[in-house]
Write a structure and sequence with these properties.
- By secondary structure, the protein is of the alpha+beta class.
- It folds into two domains: 115 residues, L-fuculose-1-phosphate Aldolase, CATH 3.40.225; 134 residues, Class II aldolase/adducin N-terminal domain (L-fuculose-1-phosphate Aldolase, 3-Layer(aba) Sandwich), CATH 3.40.225.
- It has ten helices and nine strands.
- Helix 4 runs parallel beside helix 8 and helix 6 crosses helix 9.
- Bound molecules: 1,3-dihydroxyacetonephosphate (13P) and zinc ion (ZN).
- The site of 1,3-dihydroxyacetonephosphate has 12 residues, from loops.
């Protein structure tokens, strides 16, 4: 037996591998974190090493005090997670004040958690609170087509949500709350974490202009599926725009209202604005 026999660890590795295969994780691009359940911690404890010293998180996440996370390492390649999980991943514990973490497993070659740990943990804190503990996964990927669109579309929640919804009929059903957009900011610190976690109060998806996307969800499949759906929609939009003829027809605001009624989802009216053409 080893950590790699435990379900959550297998799911974590599998998700990293799927993202890499879709081309979203060049070099060390992207990162993943999972808030472990009590059962996960119980099962994983047998494989814990002597804990490291405590390190600063760089922000405060009081609501996550005492929680354990599985997280990708800074500078580690998603490409290598499957073949070398204990080098690429680690399990960390948050201290009683929500200000520090220590390492219990993984990072065997002296690694440490992703540089985006403040964003991951602040997003986890928001989602843990809003979903009463249901959400456990935060995923950051360098999704090519979403990034491309941040160079040509206005950087607003309204435009990105509406354009992505229009490109695939299931989008408003998969992310009915919409998508948030963070203008370009320096990654890896508290400021971008604050901006992103603010958007996570409204959405499960946040775009980082000229950089990538964050997705949140209750489990690996749902979170990965959300990222995949938005990125696929962005790919269709890139193709449509590349044809250079604009849209001849599309899904209208009233079509969306009909869809919402039939699929029993609430679509905020702010995304169903009339367009001028
Ligand atoms: P890390 O290697 O520190 O996870 O950083 C990758 C990344 O995507 C930064 O935004
Ligand atoms: Zn990144």
């Amino acid at each position: 037996m080893s950590l790699t026999d435990i379900e959550f660890f297998k799911g974590f590795i599998d998700m990293c591998d799927k993202g890499f295969k879709l081309g979203w994780h060049e070099r060390n691009g992207g990162n993943l974190s999972y808030r472990m359940t009590d059962e996960d911690v119980k099962a994983a404890k047998d494989y814990f090493n002597t804990p490291s010293e405590w390190f600063e998180i760089g922000t405060t996440v009081k609501l996550l005090a005492g929680e354990f996370f599985c997280v990708t390492g800074s500078g580690k390649y998603f490409m290598n997670v499957k073949s070398n999980p204990f080098d690429s991943l680690g399990i960390i514990e948050i201290d009683e004040n929500g200000e520090k973490y220590r390492i219990h497993a993984g990072f065997v070659n002296g690694g440490k958690p992703t540089s985006e740990l403040p964003s991951h943990l602040m997003n986890h804190e928001v989602k843990k609170h809003l979903t009463e503990g249901k959400y456990r996964v935060i995923y950051h990927a360098h999704t090519t087509n979403i990034i491309a669109l941040t160079f040509v579309l206005p950087l607003t929640d309204e435009v990105f949500t509406r354009e992505l919804w229009e490109m695939a009929t299931e989008c408003p059903v998969v992310f009915p709350d919409g998508v948030g957009v963070v203008e370009w900011m320096v990654p890896g610190g508290r400021d971008i974490a604050v901006a992103t976690s603010k958007l996570m109060e409204k959405y499960d998806l946040a775009i980082w202009a000229h950089h990538g996307m964050f997705a949140a969800g209750p489990d690996f499949d749902t979170t990965f599926g959300l990222m995949h759906t938005a990125e696929k929609s962005a790919e269709i939009l890139v193709k449509v725009l590349s044809m250079g003829m604009g849209k001849r027809q599309t899904i209208s605001p009233d079509n969306f209202r009909d869809l919402a009624a039939d699929f029993n989802v609430k679509l905020p009216e702010k995304f169903l604005y009339e367009k001028e053409d």
